[in-house]
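Consider the tokenized backbone below.
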């Protein structure tokens, strides 16, 4: 089974400015309503502990493997609940420059596994709300920086 959610937010800053916020992992606790902690610095092919808090949901710790870290363009990781194939999520942030001072941030996740049909309400509820809250927070942070 597979389920995809995707959100978009237009930010009045360059892709580089947004990347600087997105890749400053140690600062997330000061502004992100959903990603509360990153362990160390992510490296492609390595796992790092990440703490998440979705609106109305419980906090969870996961150890995703980082799949892609492309400067000013894309950050992607994959986490799982238990064993592969039970409930996996490939999370991504993509930055698309609209102009020198305007960027579309795309945040999404591809959920796969046997539990997906049973967790659709959570995916389209708290998880989607968490993505929207994160998007608004990064937009406010980016546009507040001079």
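A designed sequence for it:
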């Amino acid at each position: 089974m597979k389920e995809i959610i995707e959100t978009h937010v237009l930010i009045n800053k360059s892709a580089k400015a947004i990347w600087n916020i997105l890749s400053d992992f140690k600062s997330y606790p000061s502004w992100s309503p959903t990603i509360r902690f990153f362990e160390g610095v992510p490296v492609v092919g390595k796992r790092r502990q990440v703490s998440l808090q979705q609106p109305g949901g419980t906090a969870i710790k996961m150890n995703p493997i980082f799949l892609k870290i492309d400067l000013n363009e894309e950050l992607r990781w994959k986490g799982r609940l238990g064993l592969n194939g039970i409930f996996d999520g490939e999370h991504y942030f993509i930055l698309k420059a609209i102009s020198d001072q305007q960027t579309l941030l795309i945040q999404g996740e591809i959920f796969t596994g046997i539990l997906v049909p049973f967790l659709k309400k959570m995916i389209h509820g708290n998880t989607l709300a968490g993505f929207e809250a994160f998007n608004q927070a990064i937009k406010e942070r980016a546009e507040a920086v001079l």
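The first strand starts at residue 2 and ends at 11.
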